[in-house]
From TrEMBL:
Signal peptide: none annotated. One of its GO terms (molecular function) is mRNA binding. Pumilio repeats lie at residues 75-110. RNA-binding nucleolar protein required for pre-rRNA processing. Involved in production of 18S rRNA and assembly of small ribosomal subunit. GO terms for cellular component: nucleolus. PROSITE patterns: PUM, PUM_HD. It comes from Aureobasidium melanogenum (Aureobasidium pullulans var. melanogenum). InterPro entries: ARM-like, ARM-type_fold, PUM-HD, PUM3, Pumilio_RNA-bd_rpt. Keywords: Repeat. This is ARM repeat-containing protein. SUPFAM superfamilies: ARM repeat.
Length: 345
């Protein structure tokens, strides 16, 4: 017989009753949750690395009170990274930070300190680590995670903070500030950062907010006209020749710091660079005009591109709806854009 088969079987029967689509009365649900916790307490780890039984713990998190959720998180605290790397366990980590309060999130997030570089390259863990960074981490937690892109010593710093249970509100991920304090670190830090950025770009893992933030820090600390600045611009254009290419530039445009990267590229690139970059956004101009981040790329394009005819050809037909044959529909669409708080700019 499989170990724990009996308790897993009992818990799954309770799970089936809890997840019924028809309404489960509140008192009955509380009784079922209490019964479920009687079974899983002290054994949570036995459930979470199996694709069927991990759903039981997800259900327990959903219907538990906050104290019961903390009980689950406490039992799994040392397993967070392994769960994040698991095909099914990563969804449980997501459930913990979504259903949990600030105390629970402060238990979960530090478990990733010191391991960000490895996990952001992992096919399963990368998405949950970036979701935590983007959606639930505090500003100081985000800074500690992003600093790990700058070198091994920053990962050790994060591990130390986690071990001590400290949250330092003064910690910064602003690379200029760090390099101003230690200018001798510029070359190794920039090399380390460039290698990690390049790894993710080559793997086509370009949708991560953390990557976009790291790219902005790198670009802001290069000097225009230098080989490293030129190399970075080439990296931005690296997938343009491939079929359905341009994913990196498309993803960058729709995040706060990613859009700044594209604006800087338009400003510092050559006329040819600007033409290639704008070509990527063909058929996405209306969507960009409506987006609070991407619309800044359109503004930068109008401000920097030398060939006004090319700019007009690339941007205005889609904005003005020239491909819409019905005149009334075209006018309504234009009115919608003019009325939109972002697009009208």
């Amino acid at each position: 017989a499989k170990p724990n088969a009996d308790i897993i079987g009992r818990s799954k029967k309770i799970w089936e009753r809890l997840r019924r689509k028809s309404h489960v009365p509140n008192d009955e649900r509380k009784a079922l949750v209490a019964e479920l916790f009687d079974i899983i307490t002290g054994r949570v780890r036995d459930f979470v690395f199996k694709h069927d039984s991990v759903r039981v713990i997800q259900c327990a998190l959903k219907y538990a009170n906050m104290q019961q959720r903390k009980q689950i998180v406490t039992e799994l605290r040392a397993d967070m990274r392994e769960l994040a790397e698991s095909k099914y366990g990563k969804f449980l980590v997501a459930k913990m930070v979504v259903e949990g309060d600030a105390e629970i999130r402060n238990m979960v997030v530090p478990q990733f300190y010191g391991h960000v570089r490895r996990l952001i390259n992992h096919p399963e863990a990368a998405w949950i680590v970036d979701d935590i960074y983007r959606q639930v981490a505090t500003s100081s937690q985000k800074a500690l995670m992003l600093r790990e892109w700058y070198g091994a010593e920053f990962a050790i710093f994060g591990k130390t903070k986690a071990a001590q249970g400290q949250t330092d509100d003064k910690v910064t991920a602003d690379l200029k500030t760090i390099l101003d304090e230690s200018p001798e670190k510029k070359k190794p830090v920039m090399n380390y950062l460039q290698q990690l950025i390049n790894q993710l770009v080559q793997k086509k893992m370009t949708g991560f907010t953390m990557l976009h933030d790291a790219m902005l820090q790198y670009f802001l600390n290069t000097t225009p006209g230098t080989p490293e600045a030129a190399e970075f611009l080439e990296l931005l254009k690296s997938d343009l020749d491939e079929e359905n290419g341009g994913d990196l530039l498309k993803n960058l445009a729709f995040t706060k710091n990613g859009s700044r990267v594209v604006c800087l590229a338009l400003g510092y690139g050559t006329a040819k660079d600007r033409k290639l970059i704008l070509r990527v956004y063909k058929d996405a101009v209306e969507m960009m005009a409506l987006d609070p981040n991407a619309h800044t790329v359109l503004l930068a394009a109008m401000d920097t591109v030398d060939d006004t005819k090319m700019t007009a050809k690339a941007l205005f037909p889609e904005l003005l709806g020239e491909n819409i044959k019905d005149e009334a529909e075209r006018e309504n669409r234009l009115v919608d854009l003019i009325s939109h708080l972002t697009a009208r700019i």
